[in-house]
Amino acid sequence: MMQGNKLRILEREVIAFIREHTIENVVVSFSGGKDSLVVLDLAVRAGIDRAVFADTTIEFKETVEYVKFIGSFFGIKIDIVKAPKDFFEIARKIGFPSRRRRWCCDVFKFGPLAKYAAENDVHAFVTGLRKDESYQRTKYTRIDKNPIVPVTQLNPILEWSEKEVWGYIKKYELPVNPLYKYLDRIGCWCCPFKTRDEFEKIKHHFPQLYAKLRSELLAYAEILGIKDKRKFVDEFGWTRWASPVNRSYGGFSTLCSEGRPMRHLVFLENKMREAVTKLLPILTDKFEVHDGGNIICVPTDIPYTKLNILVEKAVNCVGCGACTATCKNNALCVENGYLEVRTDKCTHCLACLNTNLLKGACVFRNYSTRRISLTRM
Q: Are 226 and 313 found together in one domain?
C-alpha cells in the first residue's frame, strides 16, 4: 500500500511538472525504452500529443516497429527523424566510435533532433532520462540544456528508481519493447558502452547483427594496421580505442603577392574549392575565385582561426549533418554530399564555427584519424 501511495504521489507530481512547463510547443523525445514509455504515458496524461524518435540507423528493427505501434497505442503522432547518412557509412570514414571517441550521438541523435526542433518550432523536449542509469546522467538537472540541441530539455523522472519505473508500467499495464525479453537495456545495438555480457546476448539472440559488426570491425582494424585483430575485435579492444590524427595537406594559404589586403587559398583539387565556396558566405561575401577555380581570395581582416576552421570543415565534410544542429536559424544543410549555408537565413553568428559548442566545430575534424588541412605560408 505504501509503495502504491508513493507511486501515486510521484506520478501526480510529474504530471503537474510537465503541465507547468508546457507553455509553448513541447514534444516527447521517445527512445523506445521503458523510461521513455513511462514519460510518454505521463506526458499524454498531461496533455501532450506529439513525440519524436531519433532513428540512429543502428536501432533494432524490433524497436522501430515498436515505436510505430506505440504511436497507434496512444493515438498520437510520433515523428521519426534520421541523420542524412547511415551509421556504418559514416563510421567507415570517421572511424568507429569508442568510449574515448564519442561522436555518434552528435551525428545520429542530437543533430536530427536539433534540426527537427528548428523546423517544427519546438521549445522543449521531454525525456525519460534517469540519474541512476549512469554516472554521466547524475550531472543532469530536471530542467536542462543540451549544447547541441538548442531547446529546453525537461527530465521529469530524473530521480525515479528503476523499481518505480517498472511499478508504473505494471500498474497501468503499458506495453513494453519486446526486446526486454532478451536485454536489460534498449538502444543502439552496437554501442561501444555495452558490456561484454550485453554483446554476448546480442551474439546469441541476433547473430546476423553481431556478424555484421564483426565484419565491419575487422575491415576497420585492417585500415588501422592492427596486428592483434582478435584482441581488437573479439575482446572488444575497439570500445576503448583512440588513434592519433594524421594530417595531409590539400593546398596552402598565403598573402597576396600584389600587396592587396587579401589572402589566397590555393587548393590541389577543384572539389575542395567548391566545398569551401559553399561555406565562405558564413564569414564574408567579399571573396574572389581565380585561375581556373583553384584559388580563392578572401579579405585579410577575416580572423585566420575562424577561416581555418571553416576550410577544414568544408574539405573534410562527410555529410553527417551533425554541425547543422549548431545553427538556431536552420541555415546549414547537407545537399548532394556538400555542407551548404542558406545565405538568406545566416546571421553570421558563427555558432557553426564554435569549437566549444561542437568539438572541433565538426565531427570529422575532431574525431577522424585523417584530416586534410591547408599549409599556412
A: no
Domain that includes residue 352, residue range:
246-376
What would the DSSP string read from start to end of 285-298? S--EEEGGGTEEEE
Quick one: 273 and 370 in the same domain? Answer: yes
118 to 48, 154, 244, 279, 329: CA distances (angstroms): 19, 17, 35, 20, 7
- Grid cell 540519474 is found at 131
Closest residue by Cα to residue 267 from 204, 201, 312? 312
Assess whether 148 and 11 both reside in one domain. Answer: yes
Q: Answer yes or no: is 189 within a domain.
A: no
Cα separation, 138 vs 161, in Å, equals 13
Same domain assignment for residues 310 and 219: no
Instruction: State whether 228 and 326 are in the same domain.
Output: no
Place of cell 547473430: 207
* Distance (Å, whole) CA 363 – CA 103: 6
At 239, is the secondary structure helix, strand, or coil? helix
Distance of CA 345 to the CA centre of its chain: 22
Which positions of the chain have pLDDT values less than 50? 1-2
Do 116 and 252 share a domain, yes or no?
Answer: no
| Residues 79, 68: Cα–Cα separation, whole Å | 9
CA atoms of 147 and 326, how far apart (whole Å): 8
Residue 191 counted as domain residue: no
- The CB-based long-range contact list for 45-50 (8 Å cut-off, 24+ gap) reads 45/15, 46/14, 46/15, 46/18, 46/19, 46/22, 47/19, 47/22, 48/18, 48/22, 48/126, 49/76, 49/77, 50/76, 50/77, 50/78, 50/79
Domain assignment present for residue 188? The answer is no
CA angle 67, 69, 72 (to 5 degrees): 115
Count of CA atoms in the C-beta half-sphere (13 A) of 224: 26
Same domain (yes/no): 148, 206: no
Cell digits of residue 48: 501532450
Q: What is the pLDDT of residue 237?
A: 95
The domain tally of the chain equals 3
